């Protein structure tokens, strides 16, 4: 799973690649959406469930931020992706099994740290494979699969957890799904032992890569700020009766449009050989959607805003990985730098509550929160011309 091959990857490889990414995402989001909250409520009761869940997820997020760059660096040092994919999957599955029998808060924390550390291994390998295997003419398509498969994995992981109906069975079912969905890629992808060197073809990471990282960070922060207090926004600002039900509806709307526009955008970006226009369109549409949420907090408008946020996010993820792989300096540091890039996706999830809380409670409420969110999207738009190596 390493050497850059200029020939195009086939549909079978892309299908196996997407399935592997679905499995990794299911391993994360099955627990975090359903199983961890239910387990926290069972162990800590109604009075302590929020605190325990926050503790578990905070430790996991911290472990994730450290693990991904380390897996990437190890992958580059070994000049191989397959061992990282397999080792990380084994550790992640072990963590899920620890969680399946966890009866104390400390065991929950330990299990979730294992899941986060472990599943960052296959995530790092899959990210690096975009540059390793796909020629530049296909990186929009394969990169879009990377993003869209994560969306599908969220749905699958949540569905598996719900269908299991039992916490222990749910964790075991997810633990089976993760390696099962990744097996096809291990079979179909034949790895060569040495990475091809491609020095000099791309700009140094200190220039183009830094701007790509910052744009990714800002647009991920936009997405996180939209979601972090959505439940409270719907109940307190919009005034709906069933806020939880509306969160589900709006999430489905968002995911549907993000998935469609992400995949179609990836195909078109390869056909047109253009990346920046999709990222720019994504930033503009995200700004439009969050501005609507700020200025017109009514159910029909919020539905339209959710469509716009989904479209904008899809337009960006269509080219996100294609842009990142195009600004890397060479194959020997690809996984390391993509691990650093993945921090730009994880860090906003941790920062969003910290930034949103004072805005909502002290600095003007939800209207200001979503106007600030729109402004962040426009800052990302303003930075896009810095990516001079990207058309």
Question: Can you describe what's shown?
Answer:
It is a multi-pass membrane protein. Residues 1-192, 208-391 form the Major facilitator superfamily (MFS) profile domain. This is MFS transporter. Keywords: Membrane, Transmembrane, Transmembrane helix. It is found in: Cell membrane. By secondary structure, this protein is mainly α. It has 2 domains: 11-188, Growth Hormone, Chain: A, CATH 1.20.1250.20; 205-386, Growth Hormone, Chain: A. The chain has helices spanning 11-78, 82-100, 105-133, 139-164, 167-188, 205-228, 230-238, 243-272, 276-295, 299-317, 320-326, 334-361, 366-383. The longest helix has 68 residues, at 11-78.
Shape: globular
**Which whole number gives the mean pLDDT?**
84
Low-confidence stretches: 1-5, 192-206
Question: How many DSSP helices?
Answer: 13
In total, the number of strands is: 0
CATH topology title of the largest domain: Growth Hormone, Chain: A
Radius of gyration: 20 Å
CATH class of the largest domain: Mainly Alpha
Q: Domains counted in the coordinates: how many?
A: 2
Q: Determine the fraction of residues in helical runs and give it as a percent range.
A: over 70%
N-to-C SSE series?
HHHHHHHHHHHHH
CATH A-level architecture of the largest domain? Up-down Bundle
Sheet of most strands: none
Share of β-strand residues:
under 5%
CA distance, first residue to last residue: 28 Å
Alpha-beta content class:
mainly alpha
Q: What is the H level of CATH, i.e. the homologous superfamily of the largest domain?
A: MFS general substrate transporter like domains
Keywords: Membrane, Transmembrane, Transmembrane helix
Subcellular location: Cell membrane
Protein name: MFS transporter
Transmembrane segments: 12-31, 51-71, 83-102, 108-130, 142-163, 169-188, 209-232, 244-265, 277-296, 302-323, 335-356, 368-387
């Amino acid at each position: 799973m390493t050497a850059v091959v200029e020939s195009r990857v086939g549909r079978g490889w892309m299908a196996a690649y997407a399935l592997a990414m679905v499995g990794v995402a299911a391993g994360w989001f099955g627990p975090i959406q359903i199983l961890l909250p239910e387990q926290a409520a069972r162990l800590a009761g109604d009075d302590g469930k929020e605190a325990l869940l926050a503790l578990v997820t905070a430790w996991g997020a911290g472990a994730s931020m450290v693990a991904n760059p380390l897996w990437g660096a190890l992958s580059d040092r070994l000049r191989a992706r397959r061992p990282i994919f397999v080792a990380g999957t084994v550790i992640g599955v072990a963590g899920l099994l620890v969680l399946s029998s966890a009866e104390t808060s400390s065991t929950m924390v330990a299990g979730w740290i294992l899941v986060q550390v472990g599943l960052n291994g296959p995530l790092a390998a899959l990210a690096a494979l975009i540059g390793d295997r796909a020629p530049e003419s296909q990186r929009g398509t394969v990169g879009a699969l990377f993003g869209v498969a994560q969306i599908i994995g969220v749905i699958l992981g949540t569905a598996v957890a719900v269908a299991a109906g039992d916490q222990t069975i749910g964790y075991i079912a997810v633990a089976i799904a993760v390696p099962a969905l990744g097996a096809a890629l291990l079979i179909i992808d034949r790895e060569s032992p040495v990475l091809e060197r491609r020095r000099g073809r791309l700009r140094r990471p200190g220039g183009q890569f830094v701007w790509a990282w910052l744009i990714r960070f800002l647009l991920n922060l936009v997405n996180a700020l939209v979601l972090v207090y959505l439940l409270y926004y719907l109940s307190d600002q919009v005034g709906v009766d069933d806020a939880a039900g509306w969160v589900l509806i709006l999430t489905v709307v968002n995911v549907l449009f993000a998935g469609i526009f992400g995949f179609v955008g990836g195909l078109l970006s390869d056909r047109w050989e253009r990346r920046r226009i999709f990222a720019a369109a994504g930033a503009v549409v995200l700004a439009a959607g969050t501005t609507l949420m700020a200025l017109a907090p009514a159910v029909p408008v919020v539905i339209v805003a959710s469509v716009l946020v989904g479209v904008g996010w899809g337009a960006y993820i269509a080219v996100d990985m294609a842009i990142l792989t195009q600004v890397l300096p060479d194959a020997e540091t690809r996984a390391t730098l993509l691990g650093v890039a993945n921090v730009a996706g994880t860090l906003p999830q941790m920062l969003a509550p910290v930034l949103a809380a004072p805005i909502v409670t002290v600095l003007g409420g939800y209207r200001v929160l979503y106007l600030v969110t729109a402004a962040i999207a426009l800052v990302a738009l303003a930075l896009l011309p810095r990516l001079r190596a990207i058309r």
